[in-house]
Amino acid sequence: MEEVQRKQTLFSAVQPSGAVTIGNYIGAIRNFAALQDAYNCHYAVADLHAITVKQEPAALRRNTLELIALFIACGIDPEKCVLFVQSHVPAHCELAWVLNTITYPGELSRMTQFKDKSAKHADNVNMGLMDYPVLMVADILLYQAALVPIGADQKQHLELTRDLAIRFNNRYGSTFTVPDGYFPKGSSARIMSLADPLKKMSKSDENPNGFITMGDDRESILRKCKRAVTDSEAEVRYDPQTKPGVSNLLTIYCAFTGKSTAEAERDFAGKGYGDFKLAVGETVADALAPVQAEKARLLADKAYLNAVMKRGEEAAARIARKTLSKVYRKVGFYTGE
Ligand code: TRP
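A: This is the predicted complex of the input protein with tryptophan.
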């Protein structure tokens, strides 16, 4: 008898809040494309999440389009995945509201990310910032996702997703798939700041030499690598404890060449830091060039990108609507039946 193997459903999202660093690329976006054949993938541009911190409206609009283009330039095939913009599918907000009624304020106020962001944006601690994880829970549960590729900073949010899915299922009967985190091979490489290799690489670093973005030109990439903080030895060796700067550059080099650290160390045996940094910079610039060219080509064809978003919206809305209808029935909303 023929067995129909159904692919597992996977959901992830990225916020359109400005520049995307090579850390985001290596840790998340690049893997999205690698998963699209094995899983039933849903990828969203999380604009509803982005406005929990202040955004310049014109920039948010532009960043949304750019992120869709970047996703496709990084290999995400809109024919294989459901690729869409979160705000285009109203069910995300609608489910979040229902989930709010089974969430306790304490669960949200003790979230590490809420505390960090509240401290960082002390002039704009709003309810959306606190409710952010519930919206994320809605994102995931709407699609009945079994797997959610996330970074370490999102683990608490995934725990809440599981808790709320179980809580809802217990209270109203089986409704949601309880998802697991998904950590693909290679995505665990933590890319650190070039200026301070003990800190994670972040686009909000006040020192622009600390991070490389997906849009940086060759010259900037070479300059940033050249200025990267290393140590006073002269040996290219992987040892994050005593040589965090050199180790971070090696991690970046390996992420873009697919080499092991041992192979990379061999490449630079007997070479000085100058040659090493130049080689890392060239490797990164060479790897980003085709992605940048493809992204530029896509951005010049806004009609195509709009059509992709429209199709994604329709496909996402269909699935989301089905889950939401079930939820509305379960909680007792009158449906006329
Ligand atoms: N909060 C995530 C981040 O900043 C983005 C996100 C929104 C997300 N909704 C999601 C990630 C659902 C995974 C699943 O990285």
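Residues 302-331 form the longest helix (30 residues). The longest strand covers residues 9-14.
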